[in-house]
Amino acid sequence: MTAITDMPEVPRAARRPQIGNPVLHWLRTNLFSSIPNGIISIVLLAILVKGVVGFGQWGIANAVWLTPANDSSACRAVRGLGACWAIIPEKYRFILFGTYPFDEQWRPALSVVLFIALFYLSSRRAFWRRELALLWIGLLALISVLMWGGVLGLSFISQDRWGGLPVTLILATFGLAFGFPLGILVALGRRSKLPAIRSLSVLYVELIRGVPLVNLLFMASVMFPLFMPAGFNIDKLLRAQIAIILFAGAYLAEVIRGGLQAVPRGQYEAADALGLSYWRKHRLIILPQAIRHVIPPLVNTFIAFFKDTSLVLIIGIFDLLTTAKTAIIDPGWQQFSVEVYIFVAAIYFVFCFAMSRYSRSLEATSGR
Amino acid sequence: MAARPVADSLLAYNPRDSYLWAFVVGVANTLRVAVIGIVLATILGTLIGISRLSANWLLSRFAAVYVELLRDIPLLLQLLFWYVLMQALPAARAAWRPIEGVFLSNRGLILPAVPIESPQLWVLAIAVLGVAVFYLIQRWLVAQQMRDGKPRPAWPFALGLIVMLPVLVSWLLGVSWTIEWPELRGFNFIGGLTLSPEYFALLIALVTYTSAFIAEIVRSGVQSVPRGQWDAANALGLRRSFMLRQIILPQALRVIVPPMTSQYLNLTKNSSLAVAIGYQDVVSVANTTLNQTGQAIEAIALIMAVFLTISLGISFFMNWYNARIALVER
pLDDT band at residue A18, thresholds of 50, 70 and 90? Predict the structure, then answer.
């Protein structure tokens, strides 16, 4: 795969010789190289100045940063002129952790830290070994114990009290942890010589990819109970998690299939010549190469996923976006939803931006 | 009979109509947002993708920030954000009027419109026919140029068939093209074209979000054309517009079209987020039907059928287009 950074730059206008002041020279080549360019630059500068001044006035100069607890009168006084950031210190515990018991909220907080540690370690090349899978299993088990409790002197907290950032991270991470092996199986199934397995895999991938995730989530929340034996009721969060795993499996399968196609034929033939069984051939020879080929698109799929977990709002599961939306139902603070959305957008942005930077650095070094 | 009225739609609907008609209206609403969204997102995305390659430092930075910001925030969050902004707009009486005849208020965007009825439709049909005939003539002109090497201008045919002919027909038949200006009467607007806040928020969110992805596709497509092609075109002394149109774009399109198809599919599927803000697309209608009738499996199967049909339709069209522009190898 060719990295984008290796591609030739589009030729630009011939460089002017540098005359005099380097600042003026930079302005002339980069902003005012021609009359249309100059006009564009001036218009953009005007927009930039107006935007920065406008946002500065609203978001900083006229903003209210702190108010006494449960009192939004100061915010309402500046409504329309300044931002009410005071809603964030007022509501952040609810937005981040939902209705998890207040005194126990160190547990979801610690889980979030563990999740971030897990992502960080998985991104390091030095950890790309078989033991990484054990690390995932260990940490995810630890997070489950922390969230549920019921052992080691931790009180039991049922799933319907969970909310906020940990739920978003759980949906995304568990979706990935289970969707990935499923994706590998389906990708292998699509290349299988057995027609039944092949057509089943194709049907699964095309059906899931053909419909919106919203529809799958509806299916999970409405139809799933219909197929279960009477009296057997599984939790709403778990049902959404299953829908996300199925969704993840189909998309990851397509990415992995791309990687399988990139492995040269000779590798398959060599493995066959050594007399390796089908599973040993794939586990030892094919998959390690195939997955390495598709790491950048895999990371992009993870980003898409992380964002898509927000759709569980539609079936009423308390992820980060839902807690944010619920926080502003409070009548006193109702008018300040923009501030809350900006706060939550910043959290999503930090996670996704970190992943997209990482994906770009991988692309730049993938040829090595 | 569905008890809930479907507001703001292309087709008329009232609560006494059948569920089937509600579904048809829902599908029409999905298509209305998806088709217009695809067109607008393609235009905006292409402009931003090209801006990222601009020699103008400020312009390319602006484009880069736009892409990075919109790609890394969930679409649903952006949609809720736009919807909140729409609701915070002034009431109809104090509506903003950015241009004469255009009103922006918490009732949505109200535009002047030309009423389209059957005489106007006939004229439009003639214009479409003109485009088709022009396409054939242009192919013939290119074939002629291939034979003797002489360039033949195609624009007189375009002017004649696509502009003059419909104008002439509409003048001869006396078809009127009066513009209907919206007017504030009491608490609401009368006349003109109304885009509801739900539709407008959904359209803005889908277009801006998808355009960020399209911009990246366009950028990598243009960058994938080898430098030698630019140099060779320059060495031949071709004009810049000719060079872009005849040399660079056809090669870039081969890289651009396949990922573009999946973006179009994504936009269509993402239009189902309408359910979060109460725009009556097919998923919302099906959801209401499901709640009222309890026929879960049927409702969900219908949504699946609709989306699979739309997806297959877009795929077929884009595959056909892709085959047409594909590299012809001997």
Answer: low
pLDDT band at B77; cut points 50, 70, 90: very high
Residue from B72, B222, B225, B292 to probe the interface with A (highest A Cβ count within 10 Å) = B72
CB of B154 less than 8 A from some CB of A = no
Chosen domain end from B125, B145, B177: B177
Range of the domain at B168: 116-177
Establish if A14 touches chain B: CB-CB under 8 angstroms. no
Q: Which of A214, A222, A341 sits opposite B77 (nearest CB)?
A: A341
Same-domain check for residues B135 and B265: no
Question: Percentage of residues in chain B with pLDDT exceeding 90?
Answer: 15
Q: What is the ipTM of this complex?
A: 0.83
Token pair of A253 as six digits:
């399968």
Residue B152 and residue B282 share a domain: no
- Structural domain includes residue B111: no
* In chain A, residues 322-341 whose CB comes closer than 8 Å to chain B: 325, 337-338, 341
Best CA proximity match to B194, nearest among B273, B99, B104, B284: B104
The whole-number pLDDT of residue A366 equals 59
The whole-angstrom separation of Cα A39 and Cα A43 is 6
Please tell me the distance in Å from B119's CA to the nearest CA on chain A.
39
Per-chain mean pLDDT for chain B: 82
What percentage of residues in chain A have a pLDDT greater than 90?
9
**CB of B290 within 8 Å of any CB in chain A?**
yes
Q: Quick check: A11 and B230 CB within 8 A?
A: yes
Token pair 């759709």 is found at: A311
Domains and CATH numbers, chain A: 4-61 (no CATH), 93-365 (1.10.3720.10)
Q: Specify whether B38 is located in the same domain as B145.
A: no
Report the 10 Å Cβ neighbour count for B251: 17
Can you give the CATH number for the domain in which B228 is found? 1.10.3720.10
Percent of chain A with pLDDT over 70: 92
Instruction: Count CB neighbours of A18 within 10 A.
Output: 12
Nearest chain B residue to A320 by CA distance is B77
Give the lowest-confidence range in A11-15, A124-128, B29-33: A11-15
Q: Is the per-residue pLDDT at B12 higher than 70?
A: no
Q: What is the pLDDT of residue A3?
A: 40
**Chain-chain contact of A310 with B62 (C-beta, under 8 angstroms):** no
Query: Is B34 near chain A, with CB under 8 Å?
Result: no
B56–A353: do the CB atoms touch at under 8 Å?
Answer: no
For residue range A192-216, list pLDDT tens digits in order. Answer: 888 899 899 988 988 888 888 888 8
Is B171 inside any structural domain? yes
Q: Are residues B172 and B207 in the same domain?
A: no
Statement to judge: residues B50 and B87 lie in one domain: yes
CB A9 within 8 A of CB B55: no
E strands within chain B?
103-105, 108-111, 183-185, 188-190, 193-195
Q: Which of B265, B284, B273, B287 is nearest to B205 (CA)?
A: B273
Highest mean pLDDT among B43-52, B86-95, B114-123 belongs to: B43-52
Contact between A137 and A285 under an 8 Å Cβ cutoff? The reply is no
Residue B277 in this model has a pLDDT that exceeds 80: yes
Domain-located, residue B302:
yes
A44 touches chain B (CB under 8 A): yes
Interface A-B: count of C-beta contacts within 8 A: 134
Domain total for chain B? 2
Q: Which one of B48, B66, B68, B76 makes the best mutation probe of the A interface by having the most chain A beta carbons within 10 Å?
A: B76
Question: At A227, phi and psi to the nearest 5?
Answer: -90, -5
- Best residue of B65, B73, B263, B277 to probe chain A, by most A CBs closer than 10 Å: B73
Q: Are residues B197 and B317 in the same domain?
A: yes
